[in-house]
């Protein structure tokens, strides 16, 4: 895997002329708190040491051009209204430029080259990394610094309006606020992140990309979100944070299936995430691991966003178990394929990764992409 320095060199070289601005923004993995960022819940992601890097040079024309290996160029005339169009990957870029226009900012014209070490379609937020990298690049080109929260919200709106994914705030917050050795604990009701130390060298986070991505995902995400909105309306409380398991039980019949199951996931996952934060702070890794497995079960059975391959990967980690150095494991991100996150003892990490890869290959015939990552720096300018 290329480190940030190598990626930066690669972007600069591919641009073919001296860059004026270089920006980087990372993907993310979520330890716990899944599908509750759009339910006023708590989430606990961190920024991966995997980045999208963009190098840009002013070009003295009236347009911005984005290039990337194997992708059609995206050419955007600046200062004119933007709409959703081909090529698709350009919509993330257009959405972010549109957000700058809305803030009265029109960047100077430029050519840009995009490189990435964030696996795409793996539930690790390569799209948020792209949005936040573009936003950071434009900050550099415009000579301004947006408030971090505003930058994350601008990027989220780009995803809503230009990629048509009604995502929550987790990914863009993690990519923007990420810090070395810190988790980004987000209270999604207040919209405030707080940084949680995660520096114990004895703990390793393993990310296992199943390399499957089920088509259902597009409509599936929006439908889950709608189920949670329907559930909350039926329960009749203003926020999920005011809803207890007793409220879910009292409205069980009224909600019917599958909405009742979605509600049970949301309330359970909010409390699991709070309990996980407490367990982590106390160094109670047994409890933390148990909460991760419970989260996976709930995502599988009640929220129905897991899939056979994710379940295999979690089962494999769980069967290695505490004796083998595994603390906990679960699917991470939106689901329907993508990756799992596994917390383990550092001294056993290499051996665990090998076992996960070989057993998964045996069960599914697929070569998974398995790596470890530490919490890393969020979106930043490398050159400005
Ligand atoms: C995707 C979305 C996030 C979040 C997760 C599920 O990554 O972009 O906002 O909802 O799914 O936790």
Helical segment tally? 12
Structural class determined from secondary elements: alpha+beta
Can you give the helix content as a percent range? 40-55%
Rg, alpha carbons: 21 Å
Lateral strand order in the biggest sheet: 5-4-6-3-1-13
Quaternary structure state of the chains depicted: single chain
Which characteristics define this entry?
binds alpha-D-galactopyranose, 4-stranded antiparallel sheet, 384 residues, single chain, alpha+beta
How is this structure best described in words?
The chain is an alpha+beta fold and 384 residues long. Helix content is 43%, strand content 23%. It binds alpha-D-galactopyranose (GLA). The site of alpha-D-galactopyranose has 11 residues, from helix 5. Alpha-D-galactopyranose (GLA) is lined by residues 34-35, 37-38, 125, 167-168, 170-171, 333-334.
Give a quick rundown of the structure.
This protein has 384 residues and is α+β, with helices and mostly antiparallel strands. The chain is built from twelve helices and 13 strands.
Write the layout of secondary structure elements.
Elements: H1 4-15, E1 21-30, E2 42-43, E3 45-58, E4 63-67, E5 74-77, H2 90-102, E6 110-116, H3 126-142, H4 148-162, H5 170-177, E7 182-187, E8 192-197, E9 203-213, H6 217-235, H7 245-250, H8 252-255, H9 259-282, H10 285-301, H11 308-320, E10 326-332, E11 337-345, H12 349-364, E12 369-373, E13 380-383
Parallel strand pairs: 4-6
Antiparallel strand pairs: 1-3, 1-13, 2-7, 3-6, 4-5, 7-8, 9-11, 9-12, 10-11
Helix pairs in contact: 2-3, 2-4, 3-4, 3-5, 4-5, 6-9, 9-10, 11-12
The structure holds alpha-D-galactopyranose.
């Amino acid at each position: 895997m290329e480190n940030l320095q190598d990626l930066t060199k690669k972007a600069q070289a591919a641009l073919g002329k001296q860059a004026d601005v270089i920006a980087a923004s990372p993907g993310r993995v979520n330890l716990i708190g899944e599908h509750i960022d759009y339910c006023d819940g708590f989430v606990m992601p961190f920024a991966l040491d995997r980045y999208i890097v963009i190098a840009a040079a002013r070009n003295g024309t009236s347009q911005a051009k984005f290039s990337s290996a194997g992708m059609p160029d995206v050419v955007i005339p600046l200062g004119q209204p933007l709409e959703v169009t081909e090529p698709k990957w350009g919509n993330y870029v257009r959405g972010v430029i549109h957000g700058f226009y809305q803030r009265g900012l029109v960047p100077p014209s430029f050519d840009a080259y995009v490189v990435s070490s964030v696996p795409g379609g793996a539930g690790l937020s390569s799209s948020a990394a792209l949005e936040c990298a573009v936003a950071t690049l434009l900050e550099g080109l415009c000579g301004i610094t947006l408030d971090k929260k505003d930058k994350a919200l601008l990027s989220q709106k780009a995803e809503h309006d230009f990629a048509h994914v009604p995502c929550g705030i987790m990914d863009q917050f993690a990519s923007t606020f990420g810090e070395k050795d810190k988790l980004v604990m987000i209270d999604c009701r207040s919209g405030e992140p707080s940084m949680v130390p995660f520096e114990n060298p004895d703990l390793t986070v393993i990310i296992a990309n199943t390399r499957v991505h089920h088509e259902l995902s597009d409509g599936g995400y929006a439908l889950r979100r709608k189920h949670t909105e329907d559930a909350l309306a039926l329960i009749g409380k203003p926020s999920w944070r005011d809803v207890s398991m007793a409220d879910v039980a009292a409205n069980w019949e009224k909600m019917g299936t599958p909405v009742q199951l979605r509600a049970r996931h949301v309330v359970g996952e909010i409390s699991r995430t709070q309990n996980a934060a407490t367990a982590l702070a106390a160094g109670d890794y047994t409890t933390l691991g148990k909460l991760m497995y419970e989260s996976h079960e709930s995502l599988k059975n009640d929220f129905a966003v897991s899939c056979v391959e994710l379940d295999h990967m979690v089962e494999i980690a769980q069967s290695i178990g505490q004796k083998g150095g595994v603390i906990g494991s679960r699917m991470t991100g939106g689901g329907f394929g993508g990756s799992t996150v596994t917390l383990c003892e550092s001294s056993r990490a290499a051996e665990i990764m090998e076992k996960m890869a070989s057993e998964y290959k045996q069960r599914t015939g697929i070569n998974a992409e398995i790596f470890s990552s530490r919490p890393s720096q969020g979106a930043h300018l490398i050159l400005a």
